[in-house]
């Protein structure tokens, strides 16, 4: 199944966002395959255009930090988060990480009269 999905993704027959989501789901379901998943992502980086690879990584990484409803998880999903940490060291993955709102520093810059914070960049 994974081989078929990978081939379909590499051939452009499977959407990059969907492929990243499927791959993250498999990694979370079987943590013993973390090394295999990392190796697969690396081999695909040479098989597809870099923007397409980063698109798949964006959805893959998102599942480490967000639930299916887009809510931030209390703690990252360990299997996918471990792979994400490895990927973060690769400069080619910068666009995928830049798309993650959780990765952007946000500082509280203003306190309104009621004592509530407003977010600022």
From TrEMBL:
Domain of life of the organism encoding this protein: Bacteria
Protein name according to UniProt: Uncharacterized protein
Species the sequence originates in: Rhizobium mongolense
């Amino acid at each position: 199944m994974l081989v078929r999905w990978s081939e379909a993704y590499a051939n452009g027959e499977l959407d990059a966002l969907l492929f990243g989501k499927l791959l993250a789901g498999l990694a979370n379901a079987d943590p013993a395959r973390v090394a295999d998943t990392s190796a697969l992502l690396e081999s695909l980086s040479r098989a597809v255009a870099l923007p397409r690879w980063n698109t798949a990584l964006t959805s893959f990484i998102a599942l480490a930090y967000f639930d299916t409803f887009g809510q931030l998880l209390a703690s990252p999903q360990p299997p996918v988060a471990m792979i994400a940490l490895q990927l973060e060291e690769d400069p080619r993955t910068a666009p995928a990480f830049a798309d993650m709102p959780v990765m952007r520093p946000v500082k509280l810059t203003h306190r309104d009269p009621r004592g509530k914070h407003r977010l600022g960049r």
